[in-house]
């Protein structure tokens, strides 16, 4: 039986699939990664059993950047066909916009290991790594699975799931982020260094939490499992 295939859209050389890549590899998935300069040559999304849109230092509404416009075109095609899709941070914002939601700048960036104060179950609670300066909203056709201080942190529509946080992130991943020109020096670099130390100190717990969430997400979008939309005001503690 052939291995299931995942198409991963990686937007910077300093970022990667990290824990979600580890999760899929341990389960026998064959993963193909697509960089921004490869998108213009794709007439349609790559044939895959799962498509994953990763994060970016850019914003999903910056469609004057050619690769973002191309990525939105591919996402639009996947959503139209209800193909299994996972979006992480920028990827979630991209999907939310194509579903009819909104993406806009926040008054202040949200950065750090944080928990969600409302969620559909313990798997969504965290703490998760957040690193975003934009916030998203989703249309009424989507289910909100997690939020914090009124900001949507996870959502689902059919076989599409978006998470505003970074469940894939590890200490090594954070140190790769520090190679990005925007984060090599200054307060952002110092903060990333501290966040990486936290990730190293809690590596086993972070990996287990992430793998539990990825298992749930795959059951939802590959097997059409239940999502248990938020019904209670606070996450389990």
Structural class call reads: alpha/beta
Order of helices and strands: EHEEHEHEEEEEEHHH
Question: Strand tally, please?
Answer: 10
Q: Could you tell me how far the N terminus lies from the C terminus, measured between alpha carbons in angstroms? A: 41 Å
Q: Number of helical runs?
A: 6
The dominant shape is globular
Lateral arrangement of strands in the main beta sheet: 2-1-3-4-10-9-8-6
* Low-confidence region ranges: none
What is the radius of gyration?
Answer: 16 Å
Most strands sheet: 8 strands, mixed
Helix percentage range: 25-40%
Mean pLDDT across all residues, rounded?
91
Strand content: 25-35%
How does this model look, in words?
This protein has 237 residues and is an alpha/beta fold. The chain is 32% helix and 25% strand. The protein has helices at residues 18-26, 66-80, 90-99, 171-177, 187-201, 203-222; strands spanning 5-9, 30-34, 50-53, 85-88, 102-114, 118-119, 128-137, 143-148, 151-157, 160-163. Strands 2-1-3-4-10-9-8-6 form an eight-stranded mixed β-sheet, with helices on both faces. Strands 5-7 form a two-stranded antiparallel sheet. The radius of gyration is 16 Å and the shape is globular.
Outline the fold blueprint.
Blueprint: E1 5-9, H1 18-26, E2 30-34, E3 50-53, H2 66-80, E4 85-88, H3 90-99, E5 102-114, E6 118-119, E7 128-137, E8 143-148, E9 151-157, E10 160-163, H4 171-177, H5 187-201, H6 203-222
Parallel strand pairs: 1-2, 1-3, 3-4, 4-10
Antiparallel strand pairs: 5-7, 6-8, 8-9, 9-10
Helix pairs in contact: 2-3, 4-5
């Amino acid at each position: 039986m052939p291995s299931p295939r995942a198409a991963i859209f990686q937007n910077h050389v300093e970022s990667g699939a990290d824990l979600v890549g580890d999760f899929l590899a341990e389960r026998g998935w064959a993963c193909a990664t697509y960089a921004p300069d490869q998108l213009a040559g794709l007439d349609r999304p790559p044939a895959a059993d799962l498509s994953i849109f990763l994060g970016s230092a850019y914003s999903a509404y910056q469609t004057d950047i050619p690769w973002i416009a191309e990525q939105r075109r591919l996402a639009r095609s996947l959503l139209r066909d209800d193909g299994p899709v996972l979006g992480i941070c920028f990827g979630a914002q991209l999907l939310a916009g194509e579903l009819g939601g909104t993406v806009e700048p926040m008054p202040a960036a949200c950065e750090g290991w944080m928990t969600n104060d409302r969620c559909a179950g313990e798997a969504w609670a965290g703490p998760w790594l957040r690193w975003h300066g934009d916030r998203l909203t989703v249309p009424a056709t989507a289910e909100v699975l997690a939020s914090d201080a009124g900001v949507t942190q996870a959502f689902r529509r059919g076989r599409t799931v978006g998470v505003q946080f970074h469940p894939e992130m590890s200490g090594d991943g954070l140190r790769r982020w520090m190679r990005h020109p925007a984060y090599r020096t200054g307060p952002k670099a110092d903060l990333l260094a501290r966040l990486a130390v936290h990730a190293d100190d809690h590596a086993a717990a972070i990996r287990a939490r992430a793998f539990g969430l990825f298992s749930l997400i795959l059951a939802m979008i590959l097997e059409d499992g239940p999502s248990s939309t938020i019904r209670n005001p606070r996450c389990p503690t």
